[in-house]
Design brief:
Layout lengths: L3 H26 L7 H34 L4 H24 L8 H5 L5 H8 L4 H104 L1
């Protein structure tokens, strides 16, 4: 079973790998044209990854603060992980600054929701009317693809929910059958107990009669022996 320390280490490695991916994307940005759909997709990918990185860093901070209470850890090891997290935070801030998002800004800025006019101007710079229309169509296609993926996810979730519901119905029927069998077995056990009680009473009565008969026979034999002794003496 994985410990909290193992979970923190795994999360930190994933965050470090994500920061390296963002750094690689920033390096590739210089080879892209100043504007256009490809540049926009590249920028969106970087913003999305930085948003994910921020979430991972927040989770790492939360795990690290709870770590001493969940398992024993030396102060040296705890300070080492705090330093590792601080360095990764500094690297993330540097990456965000390179994208003109110092200290990550806020989540709306990171998601690139179009509230910054500068971004719109940068994207559409150098595009004619046909280019702008093409960009709009490209964005619409991406949105349609996102909706299609969402639909697939919803349908998959629906199928899983139906399967779980069927499984619950099956378990309910099995429990009902088991309860019915328990009731039948209990009734049979009560009948057997009643029969045993009757048999026990009959056995006790028969034993009493047998004892009485043996007593009479013994008395008769004793009388006969006494009579014989008196007669021959």
């Amino acid at each position: 079973m994985a410990t909290s320390l193992d979970q923190w280490t795994r999360e930190f490695n994933e965050a470090s790998r994500l920061s390296d991916e963002i750094n690689a994307l920033i390096s590739e940005r210089g080879s892209l044209p100043p504007s256009g759909p490809e540049t926009q997709r590249h920028l969106t990918a970087m913003r999305r990854k930085i948003t994910i990185l921020r979430t991972r860093l927040e989770n790492l901070e939360s795990l690290l603060s709870k770590l001493p209470s969940t398992q024993p850890i030396k102060d040296k090891d705890l300070h080492k992980r705090q330093e590792m997290l601080s360095n990764l935070n500094a690297k993330a801030n540097q990456l965000a600054s390179m994208l003109k998002m110092s200290n990550f800004g806020n989540r709306e800025d990171l998601l690139g929701d179009g509230k910054k006019p500068v971004d719109v101007v940068t994207i559409t710079a150098g595009l004619d009317n046909q280019g702008i229309v093409g960009l709009q169509r490209q964005i619409m296609r991406e949105q349609d693809e996102g909706l299609e993926n969402l639909e697939v996810t919803v349908l998959s979730t629906k199928h899983i929910a139906l399967a779980v519901n069927e499984e619950l119905d099956l378990h309910t029927r099995l429990i009902d059958d088991a309860d019915e069998q328990v009731g039948v077995t209990d009734s049979r056990l009560q009948r057997v107990q009643k029969r045993l009680a009757i048999l026990n009473k009959r056995t006790k009565g028969g034993c009493s009669c047998l004892c009485l008969l043996l007593s009479i026979v013994a008395i008769a034999v004793l009388i006969a022996v006494v009579w014989a002794l008196i007669k021959y003496l």
